[in-house]
Amino acid sequence: MRAIKIHITFFLTILASAPLLAQLTPFAIINDSDGYTNIRYGKNKKIVDKLHSNQVFAIRSIVDDDGWQDWFWIDYPDYAQRKKPFERFVNKTKDGMIHKSRMKALPDLPQWKKSLEDSTLVCTRGLDRITIRYGKFIKKNHTYQKVGQDLIVKIDGSEPWGIDGVLHDNTTEIKSITIEINKQKYELPQEAIKNMLRPTPF
């Protein structure tokens, strides 16, 4: 289980380290020889939570309070609210502060080689491989919940990702994700990739 968590982190690197997205939301992982890092809060630096090595979080800003030099505000998933193995933590996040020495930005991690062919992105590093297959999103096969006349807020009862409320005729979606590591193959369940629209392979 540990191995698959680490490589899902690298999968996030592939999807989230594009220059524009990195500019908008810097992502990083916990990088601590102790295996975890304490999350702190308040003037007294009270420990309120912990994140383990290789867990992903978003860097919000530098802490500007006195005595907090080289500390950062972060947002991270509230794992206590997790109800299933593959959870989308929409409106289920927490915040706190960690020192910059305990984090490593996703673009600074070892990068995977990427190739795109016939709507399939293949990412390799050594013998490990991630295969992401894309395809056209068929609008007539789905149901929609809208705000007003046009703004789509849910597709088939779930929040869509990547469209900002508007579907186009050429909208694509992720059809499948397969992770191969240590000679074992993992197929992400459809629930985990549901409504992942307009992905950017590179």
Architecture per CATH nomenclature, i.e. the level-2 architecture of the largest domain: Roll
Q: Please tell me the total number of domains.
A: 2
Uncertain ranges: 1-23
Structural class: mainly beta
- Tell me the Rg in angstroms: 19 Å
- From the N-terminal CA to the C-terminal CA, the straight-line distance is 28 Å
| Tally of separate helices | 3
Q: What average pLDDT do the residues reach?
A: 82
Q: Element order, helices and strands?
A: HHEEEEEEEEEEEEEEH
Tell me roughly what share of residues is in helical segments: 10-25%
Which oligomerization state do the chains in this entry correspond to? single chain
CATH topology of the largest domain: SH3 type barrels
- Beta content: 35-45%
Per CATH, the class of the largest domain reads Mainly Beta
State the fourth-level CATH superfamily of the largest domain: SH3 Domains
Number of strands: 14
Major sheet description = 5 strands, antiparallel
Gross morphology is globular
- If strands are numbered along the chain, what order do they take across the biggest sheet? 6-5-4-1-7
Keywords: Signal
Signal peptide: 1-22
